[in-house]
Amino acid sequence: MIWNSSTENSRSARARAKQQSERGFSLIELLVVMSIVGLMSSVILVNLTKSTRKSRDARRKNDIAQLQKAIQLYFDDKRVFPPNADNDGAGWDESNDGSFLDTLVSSGYLKQQIVDPRNTATYSYSYQLYNQGSTNCTSTFYILGVRKFENDPALGGNAQCPGGQDWDTLFDYVMQISE
């Protein structure tokens, strides 16, 4: 091979290109990777948030079923529904007031107090006992409800007396159980 300045220049150009490629990633490559990672993390975060909300709603449904069973066991043993502690001044025993259906815990029908996963004024359970004749109903009954679900649509319920209060408008899920 004949050595000349053009051969030397092409070798040094290749050596410089090799050194540059060994140094690391270019700015554009880094930006592309960062944008892909950012997009993937935002998709994962959205899905995680949705699944967390669904999980809390599933727990709410399970909690209400447990409360209903405990109230029914209490009624079967004592022939009366448990009293409610009116801590809000409106007659409702609310899970976010600290003493939600304490009678069920102190009597052994529940191991511990059951409260909403978020347990705020917006997300809470409510219980109220009504005597016979109140709100145009012919028997003693109680209302047990979930104020609000996060993800599930309102499930409604069957809580109303003819000509009386319609509790379906106050809760996303509500049940009325009579003697």
Automatic annotation (TrEMBL):
Entry's transmembrane regions: 27-49
PROSITE patterns attached to this UniProt entry: PROKAR_NTER_METHYL
Transmembrane among keywords: yes
Keywords: Membrane, Methylation, Transmembrane, Transmembrane helix
Alphabetical list of Pfam families matching this protein: N_methyl
Top-level division of the source organism's lineage: Bacteria
UniProt keyword Chloroplast present: no
InterPro entries, per database record: Bac_GSPG_pilin, N_methyl_site, Pilin-like
BP-aspect Gene Ontology terms: protein secretion by the type II secretion system
Cellular compartments annotated: Membrane
Any single GO CC term annotated in Swiss-Prot or TrEMBL for this entry: type II protein secretion system complex
Name of the featured protein: Type II secretion system protein GspG C-terminal domain-containing protein
Native source organism of the sequence: Candidatus Wirthbacteria bacterium CG2_30_54_11
Topological category with respect to the lipid bilayer: Single-pass membrane protein
